[in-house]
Amino acid sequence: MTENRKIGFMERLFGAKPKPADPSPAPPEAEAPQTADRPADPPPPPPLDTPPLSAPTEDRAPPPDASTAPGNSTDMDEEPHGLAGPPETTVEFVEEVEDALETPPEPVPPIPAPSPLSVAADAAPRQNWFQRLATGLKRSSDQLTGGITAVFTKKRLDEAMLEELEDVLIQADFGVETATSVTDALRRDRFDRDVTTAEVRAVLAGEVARVLAPVARPLDIDPAHKPFVILMVGVNGSGKTTTIGKLAQKLSAEGKSVMLAAGDTFRAAAIEQLQVWGRRTGAPVVAKPTGADASGLAFEAVTRARAEGSDVLIIDTAGRLQNRDELMSELEKIVRVIKKVDPTAPHATLLTLDATTGQNALSQVEIFGRRAGVSGLVMTKLDGTARGGILVSIARKHGLPVHFIGVGEGVDDLEPFKADDFARAIAGRAE
Ligand SMILES: Nc1nc2c(ncn2[C@@H]2O[C@H](COP(=O)(O)OP(=O)(O)OP(=O)(O)O)[C@@H](O)[C@H]2O)c(=O)[nH]1
């Protein structure tokens, strides 16, 4: 019987009822003309789902303009990626950046980043984190609940229902192993007995929590390192800069002195975006004019943070696709140069993963891990996908710590990752 089931399962995977196309094959290398300093990045892999709430997924089309968060937009944002002569090369701009470097920023009390989501949240009664998590994961949980309800039309659990459930879970990106462990557990405990959808969701939540518990690890800022250097890496538009802002806010609120480094020297808008976050959180920002060498900037930033006794230095980097060898080499160089100032740094290299990129995230973890020595993950935009199960696939395959997850653009929408909460929210067990 098991044998029959396995054959049926493979057929369903690759045969009569295939899973939707896997976007993981890397997009072809851009053959478009390259700029003198740096090739224009091809767009990041397309999301599998309908675009999320507002601007975010738009940002991942070329150019990867990250600055659509209110307060961050500039005229420059309209510039196509890589076009010559943007205003950031003007004397005024350069002076502005240099002035910003010279003038110590006035301490500004941290204010939450305004966003359509946080504004809406302010109007409504304030949600606690679990409620926001459950709201953020609603697309995923609705899709799952709908799929499970459609499968469990009969009371008594039979093999056909288990096979269909396996499909539902695989299509939600939980991965084959998690899907089979859920159905194996149900087969073992419930076969030929009455089962409700709530019981199925409870089994799913249990399995998800079991897989995620070992990777749900907080980001430990070791005070022995001063500064504790965090390098933020990821593909274009995955949420690096926004995550840096949210992290800076959290760390400042804990009483740590934070310095930021605008290492995405390729985009003026990214530099400005970080400066806005710096003003909001009272963190000084080390920046250079667009086009400056990113590793040189990282060197300066570590040197300055050390001289000023900062507790934490967070270095932004330009978004890059993992299959762009020369850009990944540039990242390796940044790491090498940081080590010249402090051989133990970076103390954390965080990969931000956009949950809407689906299966491609697996290859991002693998290649960024190999080239940049990723120490932990931040998964953003879980609110923009119905396939939040991808986090479970990544945890099972790579076992890297997941420090934070993002379920919105607001400053409160990033929280330390907790396996149980995530499991309950995604399985629609918000009670
Ligand atoms: N809905 C939602 N949007 C998010 C989340 N995190 C980030 N964003 C949005 O995603 C967009 C891109 O974020 P950025 O932080 O600029 O991304 P980036 O990785 O720095 O981008 P590049 O510098 O182009 O590589 C912005 O509009 C953010 O507001 C999240 O958890 N949920």
Automatic annotation (TrEMBL):
Domain SRP54-type proteins GTP-binding: residue ranges: 401-414
Membrane topology: Peripheral membrane protein
Keyword set, alphabetical order: Cell membrane, Cytoplasm, GTP-binding, Hydrolase, Membrane, Nucleotide-binding, Receptor
Entry superkingdom: Bacteria
GO biological process, one term: SRP-dependent cotranslational protein targeting to membrane
Main location: membrane
Catalytic activity: GTP + H2O = GDP + phosphate + H(+)
Record-given protein name: Signal recognition particle receptor FtsY
Species this protein is from: Arsenicitalea aurantiaca
The encoding gene: ftsY
